[in-house]
């Protein structure tokens, strides 16, 4: 059997001599080769190679449930497998080529980049409390987003795809919808935390805000109180910093989705996350106060804010992609 059909990797030739003693084991009808994340459902399972009619197919087994991934020659195992080290000796040999080992733990370069970005962001928070420093606070926030984007690019360039975003992939393994809810919660928290950061550039929105009014009338000597809602046209200013940081957080949290399910899923989930987060952020306070924004104003405000953040998220994604391309060239 042609070994290139079994292992479509650029390191096939150096492996021929090593694998000759194990060729009979590879010809078995099926073999578990490791643990990985299923590109079909996003859950963690056992990656299985099955031979049917002379061809090798890749499956992911979740207990008694099987997910078909595709023919081996069309599947990038490096994006599916997470762990090969606990399996048979043949798998241990292949692991050197399928999954480059990452022995050093968390590299200090990532820690340094994170500390620099966080320091810039905290400095922006500190300057926001002082009058006249809005421009400096915005500049520091912009620099922090550049630093964090650079950190994501360096991390993805220097780390094997199967070893990237291990914690996020484990959360994703519990289900896509649960992961989506986690992202929405994190984005809501990010929006709340970025509101205090000052910025001279603001996005202004006009909408009708409800005001609860009380009226007292006397009828036949009886005092009657009545509550009613009046809508007043007001302007709401959103600082640029609150539009920059949430999309960056979403960009980071959705990177495993881009790797496992492609760019379309990545962009769709980014837009859905922003729409859901902004709708909750602006509607819930009104519901708690037993009031509600004018539905049309709420819809337009949510769409405008979400689409603006979506464009910013796409720009961050493009910037990270360009940085990775530049790194690969050099």
Task: Describe the structure in your own words.
This protein has 330 residues and is α+β, with helices and mostly antiparallel strands. It folds into 2 domains: 3-98, 2-Layer Sandwich (Alpha-Beta Plaits), CATH 3.30.70; 108-329, no CATH class. It is 55% helix and 22% strand. It has 12 helices and 7 strands. A 5-stranded antiparallel beta sheet has the order 4-3-2-1-5. The chain has a two-stranded antiparallel sheet with strand order 6-7. A hairpin with a 2-residue loop joins strand 6 and strand 7. The longest helix is centred in the C-terminal third of the chain and has 35 residues, at 295-329. It is flat, with a radius of gyration of 27 Å. Residues 1-28 and 85-105 have low confidence and may be disordered.
Q: Provide the number of structural domains.
A: 2
Largest sheet: 5 strands, antiparallel
Compressed to H and E, one letter per element, the order equals HHHEEEEEHHHHHEEHHHH
User: How many strand elements?
Assistant: 7
Principal-axes shape call: flat
Q: Uncertain regions: pLDDT < 50 for 5+ in a row?
A: 1-28, 85-105
With strands numbered from the N-terminus, the spatial order across the biggest sheet is: 4-3-2-1-5
DSSP helix fraction: 40-55%
Question: What's the gyration radius in Å?
Answer: 27 Å
| Overall pLDDT | 77
Amount of beta strand: 15-25%
- Our measurement of the CA-to-CA distance between the termini, rounded to an integer number of angstroms, reads 38 Å
Helix-strand category: alpha+beta
The number of distinct helices, counting runs of at least 4 residues, comes to: 12
